[in-house]
Each structure stands twice: as structure tokens, then as C-alpha cells.
Amino acid sequence: MSAVEIIFLVIAVAFVVLVVCLCRLICRACKTLKKVNEMIDDLDHQPKDILNQANEISVNLNSKLKRLDPIFRAVENCGTEWECKTALRNERLFCKCCKSKVASEEVEATDFIQLALMGINLWKKIKKGE
């Protein structure tokens, strides 16, 4: 065997070793990619589940907010009534022609009774809405 043949033999052996190492590396990379694909598939379900739960919460919240609408309307009506009563009271306290303050600032008991009745009606509407 000459030196050239020995060199070619060493190069051939090195090439075979290199090919074997590359094959093992490619097999490991394939296994790793399969595992990564499986993990991605598993993770794909989680956002869908979270979105479904968010949709359920949204529907639940909307239904509960709709139940509160009568209470808010009752409070709004009470506020409107209160505003009207206040405006009427202010008109009685001021002279219409010159807008000067009238001397008597007596608050009638009927005003308090009406306000108490409005509060009772509001309480009944709130209880009925629950």
C-alpha cells in the first residue's frame, strides 16, 4: 500500500464517520421537530379554550347587566322627579317677575312626604328587580 492509498483510505473512513454522524444528527433533529409540532398542537387548543371562556363570561355579564337596567331607570326617574320638585320649590322661593328672593322660605311637610314616597317606590322597584 502506498502513501496515496493510505491517504484515500483515511479520507474514506473520515467521510463514512462524517456521514454516520450527520445521519444521527438528522434523526435527532427529526425527533425534536416532531416533539415541537406536538407541543404546538397542544398549545393550539389553549387559546381556543380561553376565547370560549371569555365569550361565556361576556354573555353572562351582559345578561346580568340587563337585569340592572330597571334599577337604573328607577333611579333616573327618581332623579328627574327630584329635579322637578327642586325646580318647583325654587320657583316658590323666588318672585317670578323680578327674580328676587321671597321672604318666606318655609318648606312644606308635603315636600318631605312626597320625597319619602319616591324613596319607597324606588326601594320597591329595586327589590322587584332582584
Average residue pLDDT: 80
Number of domains: 2
Biggest beta-sheet profile: none
Helix content: over 70%
Number of strands: 0
Main structural class? mainly alpha
Which runs of at least 5 residues are low in confidence (pLDDT < 50)?
Answer: none
Estimate the global geometry from the Cα principal axes: rod-shaped
Spell out the key features of this protein.
130 residues, mainly alpha
Can you describe this structure?
The protein has 130 residues and is mainly alpha-helical. It has two domains: 1-43; 65-130, no CATH class. It is 86% helix and 0% strand. The chain contains two helices and no strands. The chain has helices at residues 3-93, 109-129.
Gist?
This protein is an all-alpha fold and 130 residues long. Helices cover 86% and strands 0% of the residues.
Give the topology, please.
Blueprint: H1 3-93, H2 109-129
Helix pairs in contact: 1-2
